[in-house]
C-alpha cells in the first residue's frame, strides 16, 4: 500500500508517552503524510488525561482525547481523581471516558478495586453521555456483566485493542459496541485467532488504532529501526484488515473513519473520505 489515504482516524495513541518527547512534531507530520488526519490521544491516568486534553485544545484540527484511569492504576483512583476526570470529560475536546475497564492478566491493581473504579467510569459515562474507551484483558465475564448492566444508560463505546475470542466478540456486538483493532492483527504468532475472526466485525462497528508506542505491526517492511509504534503505521493495520476480510483497503479506511466520526462526534470538516 504505497498511497496514503485521505482521512484515517487513529482512535488510540499514547502520544503523551515520553518516547515522543524529542520528535513529537515529526511524528505528527509523518501521520498526516500517511493520511492519518485525526488522532485520539489516550488518557490512562490523571497526568496523561490532563496532558492529552491540553494537546487537543491546542491543536483541535488534529487531536481529540479521552480521560480516565487504566485498570493498571485503579488503585490510584480517589475523590480528587474522580473530580478531575469529570471536569475533563465535560470539555468539548475530550470525546470519550477511559481508558477504563478490567485487566486480570497482570493484576497491577486488586481486582475488587478494578471493578469499583470501572463502575465509577460507567457512572461518569452515564452522566456525561459520551462514549467509553474500554480495556479488557482476561476478564471478559465480569467486564461484560458490568457493561451489560449499564448499557441502556450509556451512549456506547469501543472495546479498544480487541484481542479476545469469537464468543467475546459476539457478546460485545450484541451490546452494539464498536471494536478497535490494532497492530496485534499483524502478529503471525499471537494474532492468528484475531486474523480469523475480524471478518465477523460488521463494517459499521470497526475502528482502527495504533496504541502507539506499543504494538508495532510485525508485518512492516522494511522493519523500522525503532521498536516504537507511531500513528503513521495505522496504514499497515488497514492493509492487514483488508487481507483478512477480503474487502478493499479503501473500503476499510472509509468505514472506520465514518464509524469514528459517528461514535465520537468528531468535527465533520475532517472526514475527507
TrEMBL record:
InterPro entries: DNase_TatD-rel_CS, Metal_Hydrolase, TatD-like, TatD-type_Hydrolase. A divalent metal cation 2 binds at residues 135, 160. It comes from OM182 bacterium BACL3 MAG-120619-bin3. Signal peptide: none annotated. This is Hydrolase TatD. GO terms for molecular function: exonuclease activity; metal ion binding. The lineage of its organism: Bacteria, Pseudomonadati, Pseudomonadota, Gammaproteobacteria, OMG group. PANTHER family: DEOXYRIBONUCLEASE TATDN1, TATD FAMILY DEOXYRIBONUCLEASE. The keyword Manganese does not apply. It comes from the Bacteria.
Amino acid at each position: 500500500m504505497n498511497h496514503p489515504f485521505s482521512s484515517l482516524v487513529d482512535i488510540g495513541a499514547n502520544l503523551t508517552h515520553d518516547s515522543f518527547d524529542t520528535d513529537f512534531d515529526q511524528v505528527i507530520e509523518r501521520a498526516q503524510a500517511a493520511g492519518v488526519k485525526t488522532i485520539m490521544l489516550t488518557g490512562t491516568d490523571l497526568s496523561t488525561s490532563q496532558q492529552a486534553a491540553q494537546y487537543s485544545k491546542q491543536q483541535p484540527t488534529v487531536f481529540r482525547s479521552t480521560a480516565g484511569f487504566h485498570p493498571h492504576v485503579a488503585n490510584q483512583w480517589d475523590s480528587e481523581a474522580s473530580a478531575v476526570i469529570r471536569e475533563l470529560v465535560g470539555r468539548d475536546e475530550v470525546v470519550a471516558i477511559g481508558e477504563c475497564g478490567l485487566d486480570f492478566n497482570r493484576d497491577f491493581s486488586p481486582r475488587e478495586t478494578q471493578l469499583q473504579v470501572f463502575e465509577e467510569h460507567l457512572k461518569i459515562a452515564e452522566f456525561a453521555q459520551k462514549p467509553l474507551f474500554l480495556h479488557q484483558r482476561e476478564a471478559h465475564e465480569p467486564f461484560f456483566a458490568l457493561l451489560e448492566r449499564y448499557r441502556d444508560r450509556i451512549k456506547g463505546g469501543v472495546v479498544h485493542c480487541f484481542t479476545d475470542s469469537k464468543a467475546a466478540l459476539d457478546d460485545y456486538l450484541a451490546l452494539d459496541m464498536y471494536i478497535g483493532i490494532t497492530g496485534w492483527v499483524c502478529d503471525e504468532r499471537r494474532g492468528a485467532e484475531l486474523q480469523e475472526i475480524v471478518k465477523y466485525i460488521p463494517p459499521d462497528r470497526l475502528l482502527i488504532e495504533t496504541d502507539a508506542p506499543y504494538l508495532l505491526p510485525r508485518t512492516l517492511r522494511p522493519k523500522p529501526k525503532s521498536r516504537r509504534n507511531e500513528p503513521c503505521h495505522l496504514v499497515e493495520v488497514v492493509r492487514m484488515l483488508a487481507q483478512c476480510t477480503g474487502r478493499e483497503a479503501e473500503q476499510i479506511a472509509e468505514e472506520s473513519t465514518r464509524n469514528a466520526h459517528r461514535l465520537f462526534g468528531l468535527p465533520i470538516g475532517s472526514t475527507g473520505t
